[in-house]
Amino acid sequence: MKWKGRRGSENVDDRRSQGGKSFSSGSIKGFSLKGGIGLLVVAGVIWLMGGNPLQVLEMIGGVGQSNTSNYSQTYTPTAEEDEMAEFVSVVLADTEEVWEAAFKQMGRTYRKPTLVLFTGYTTSACGSAQSSTGPFYCSLDEKVYIDLSFFQQMENQLRAGGDFAYAYVIAHEVGHHVQKLLGTLDQAHQQMANTSQKNANKISVALELQADFYAGYWAHHTERMFGSLEADDIEEALNAANAIGDDRLQEQAQGHSVPDSFTHGTSKQRHDWFYKGYRTGDLSQGNSFAGY
Exposed/middle/buried for 148, CB within 10 Å: 0-12, 13-18, 19+? Predict the structure, then answer.
C-alpha cells in the first residue's frame, strides 16, 4: 500500500506510553486467553466485534473475569512500532475521506471516530481493553481500540500479514462505526437481546459481514481517490478475511466447527463480502441482513 508521506489523521489517541504488559486469566467459550491456540481463537473471534464488546460477548457465551492488576507502566516504542502507528494514522485518514464523501452523497454528515493506540491494557467506555482481546470498536465512546502487537499475531499465528491486511482490520472496525452512525448497530444489538442465542449469533454474523463489505467499499474508493493500492494488496486483505472465518478458527482449535455458534461468518463469507464491497463500490449492495 502506498502510504508514506501522506496525511495522517488528527483523531488518533496514542496511549502506548501509558500501558504495559497485561496478564489475562479470562476465557471465551472454554478457550484460554493465555498463549498458543487460545490467542489464535481470541484474535479471530473477539477481534472484529462491533459495538459494546462486553455486551455482545455476554450474548454469545460470555467472557470470564480477567486479572489486569499486573501490568508495567514502563514502555518505550520501537522505531518499527512508531512507523506502524504512522501507517495506522494514514489509513484512518483515508477512511475519513472515503466515508465523508459517502455520507455527503446520502445528505448526512460523517462523525469521525477516534482510534486509540494502546499497549497491553487501557480503559474504554465498554470496559477494559487488553491486547489479548484484539482490536474492537466501542459504540459507547465511538472509538476503535488497537494494540499494534496484534498485527504481529496476524502475521505469525494467522499467517495473514501485509500492510493492506492490517488496513483491512482498521477499515472493518471503522465499518462498525458506520453501522453505529446509520443506526444499524444499535438496532441489531436490540434484536440480539430479544431473541434466542442461535438467532443472536446469526445477527452478529450479519453485522460482521456488513463490516467486511464496508471495508471492501473503502478499499474500492481509497484506490479511486488516492491510487494507494499496490499489486497483491487485495489478495492480502482477502487472505486475512479468509483466515479469521469462524469455521477455520474452530477447526484449528477443536478439530471441527459448530455452525450455530458462528458469530462472524465462515471464511468464504468473509472473503466474499469484502470482495463484493471492493468489486462494486456500491453501498446499496451491502445488505447482509437479508433473511435474518
Answer: buried
